């Protein structure tokens, strides 16, 4: 055990160790350090932005927004490259409201993408809010793991000194 109260236990040669973390994702997220949890939240959100930017791009491509026909009613207004689709994905997921980039009623696939985006957003927010709540409300250590005595301390250094002298 370290001076800060952390248990120095390193697990080596455990078969399928990374699969066990994925199987028990809840405990993995709750026991994760704060910096790695924030990194995971950021990574999941940015991945969702990219996913829905790709879906909006695919929808615009399917509906013929890039054909250049003058009479064509666009499915998504204001978009012209991947950056604008990425901004549309951010605006949709964070529900900040639509500005220059916005979907229109001219195609039906965009409404399916918007609905899926809403469901994914609710899932991501709910999962990570639950993890943060549990992480804040639980005690930082468990007393049952280690017992301290006022009279004896055992360590490998003292045992080695006994054999040397």
Automatic annotation (TrEMBL):
<keyword id="KW-0812">Transmembrane</keyword>
<dbReference type="GO" id="GO:0005242">
    <property type="term" value="F:inward rectifier potassium channel activity"/>
</dbReference>
<dbReference type="InterPro" id="IPR016449">
    <property type="entry name" value="K_chnl_inward-rec_Kir"/>
</dbReference>
<keyword id="KW-0472">Membrane</keyword>
<protein>
    <submittedName>
        <fullName>IRK domain containing protein</fullName>
    </submittedName>
</protein>
<dbReference type="GO" id="GO:0005886">
    <property type="term" value="C:plasma membrane"/>
</dbReference>
<dbReference type="GO" id="GO:0034765">
    <property type="term" value="P:regulation of monoatomic ion transmembrane transport"/>
</dbReference>
<keyword id="KW-0630">Potassium</keyword>
<comment type="similarity">
    <text>Belongs to the inward rectifier-type potassium channel (TC 1.A.2.1) family.</text>
</comment>
<keyword id="KW-0813">Transport</keyword>
<feature type="domain" description="Potassium channel inwardly rectifying transmembrane">
    <location>
        <begin position="1"/>
        <end position="139"/>
    </location>
</feature>
<dbReference type="InterPro" id="IPR040445">
    <property type="entry name" value="Kir_TM"/>
</dbReference>
<dbReference type="InterPro" id="IPR013518">
    <property type="entry name" value="K_chnl_inward-rec_Kir_cyto"/>
</dbReference>
<feature type="transmembrane region" description="Helical">
    <location>
        <begin position="36"/>
        <end position="58"/>
    </location>
</feature>
<dbReference type="GO" id="GO:1990573">
    <property type="term" value="P:potassium ion import across plasma membrane"/>
</dbReference>
<keyword id="KW-0407">Ion channel</keyword>
<dbReference type="GO" id="GO:0034702">
    <property type="term" value="C:monoatomic ion channel complex"/>
</dbReference>
<keyword id="KW-1133">Transmembrane helix</keyword>
<feature type="transmembrane region" description="Helical">
    <location>
        <begin position="109"/>
        <end position="134"/>
    </location>
</feature>
<keyword id="KW-0851">Voltage-gated channel</keyword>
<keyword id="KW-0406">Ion transport</keyword>
<dbReference type="Pfam" id="PF01007">
    <property type="entry name" value="IRK"/>
</dbReference>
<keyword id="KW-0633">Potassium transport</keyword>
């Amino acid at each position: 055990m370290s001076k800060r109260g952390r248990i120095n236990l390193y697990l080596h040669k455990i078969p399928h160790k990374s699969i066990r973390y994925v199987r028990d994702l809840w405990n993995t997220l709750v026991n994760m350090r704060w910096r790695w949890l924030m990194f995971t939240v950021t990574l999941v959100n940015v991945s969702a932005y990219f996913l829905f930017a790709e879906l909006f791009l695919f929808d615009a491509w399917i509906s013929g927004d890039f054909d250049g026909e003058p009479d064509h009613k666009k499915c998504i207004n204001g978009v012209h490259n991947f950056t604008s689709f990425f901004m549309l994905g951010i605006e949709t997921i964070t529900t900040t409201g639509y500005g220059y980039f916005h979907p229109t009623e001219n195609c039906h696939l965009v409404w399916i993408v918007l609905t899926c985006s809403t469901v994914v957003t609710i899932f991501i927010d709910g999962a990570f809010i639950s993890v943060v709540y549990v992480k804040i409300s639980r005690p930082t250590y468990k007393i049952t793991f280690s017992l301290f005595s006022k009279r004896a301390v055992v360590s490998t250094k003292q045992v080695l000194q006994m054999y040397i002298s």
